[in-house]
């Protein structure tokens, strides 16, 4: 007998305590598994807790209540049209699977006490499908933590998973975690990788997307540990070159991505010296015209520009539809409201109001003269200042290849026994255009991976 010197044992070990990991933990615990959840940081939540909270779903009770007639088939047709427009092939069974499973999460989360607004319109979808978590994803993540504790999931924080442990047959039998007191070997009948994305792993990003201009990551914890652990034992990966183009995001809550339409309406972007930043507008990616600008940026909106933006009075319903009906720009997709108008920003720390240009200059710490030049003659207050906003890499989209059971697979498609993937760590599809799928996929894949890991664990004797 070989004594592997296990420090702990569980039926299912989950690496990563974001949405996917916690959802997997709950599903495994529901099947009767003893579950250990390893979280690298001092609290679970991950990018899930930072998310805007948009789920694009069909056949939901919210649509029904709002009188919106929708089907998964119509949803699929819209996605297929988007894929065609983007020149991308559609994996029909996988796309249908994701639509169905992601949509189910509206009900599943509702049962955990999570509420939504919507359906809001969601271009280019032909039907309102955007559901927005209430009050926000920080609250939702805490509900998941509470539910995990209630289900007796053993959450271990500051305990990053480091390597998978294999037996002589190459089957996954445990995880090494590198905690504050040194390595801890945890025996497991099944492991779920749910450690989030790799946008903060510069070496990995350089390798998979060499042409991407390297911006700072939105959060440093996203080092792709789950991808690395799986790749090290021969797992296949998919779409690893898919790393979000550096986009503008407010580093403070909420992490809204300002809408490109703002510049079209007259908003001016300035640097810390008050100098205007030239922008180029693109329909899909925000303001990519200033490739090498990585510093704090401020968005200044004067009285005339503010009048051109959508307002709550423009909404008729269901959901935030004023901007669609009028064609006026909104500020960005945002928690709670779906599409934020200027009026909503007053609740957020990165919004400031100033009656005069001198007050704007005082806030930005630049000269009034520089701002006068940037905003041009005729600009009048009151002003709104949004910022600072920075250009960051918010996410990476590649993942470990899985089958429909969320079993991690090798390049020849064979499942690696005992290893499952969820959230950003699980990818079984290439194209899922539009937004509102990453978050829902974290939840849906977590549910499926956790449930199947528990079922696998029942069959394993260690
Ligand atoms: C600002 C922002 C807004 C977004 N808004 C939306 C939206 O509205 N709709 C949408 O569909 N998607 C959105 N997304 C994307 C979506 O939120 C994520 O894709 C999804 O939540 C990822 O879930 P996850 O569980 O896979 O990863 P995460 O939630 O990032 O969880 C990963 C967890 O693993 C932990 N971890 C990392 N390494 C280890 C390790 N070695 N051991 C243990 N733990 C580890 C991390 O600390 C983290 O807690 C947004 C993303 C961002 C950044």
Overview of the structural elements:
The protein is α/β, with parallel strands linked by helices and 462 residues long. The protein folds into 2 domains: 8-243 and 395-459, 3-Layer(bba) Sandwich (FAD/NAD(P)-binding domain); 247-393, Flavocytochrome C3, Chain A, domain 1, CATH 3.90.700. It has helices at residues 19-30, 61-65, 72-85, 92-111, 137-150, 202-208, 225-232, 261-265, 303-307, 322-326, 342-345, 357-364, 368-375, 438-459, and strands spanning 8-15, 35-38, 54-56, 115-120, 130-134, 154-156, 161-166, 172-179, 182-193, 216-217, 237-238, 247-249, 268-270, 297-301, 332-334, 338-340, 351-354, 383-393, 399-401, 407-409, 415-421, 426-427. Strands 1, 2, 6, 7, 8, 9, 20 and 21 form an 8-stranded mixed sheet that branches. Helix 1 (19-30) runs parallel beside helix 5 (137-150) and helix 1 (19-30) packs parallel to helix 14 (438-459). The mean pLDDT is 92. It binds flavin-adenine dinucleotide. Flavin-adenine dinucleotide binds at residues 15-21, 38-41, 44-48, 50-54, 160-161, 194-196, 218, 221, 225, 249, 255, 394-395, 423-424, 435-440, 442.
List key phrases describing it.
single chain; 462 residues; alpha/beta; FAD/NAD(P)-binding domain; Flavocytochrome C3, Chain A, domain 1; 2 domains; eight-stranded mixed beta sheet; six-stranded mixed beta sheet; binds flavin-adenine dinucleotide
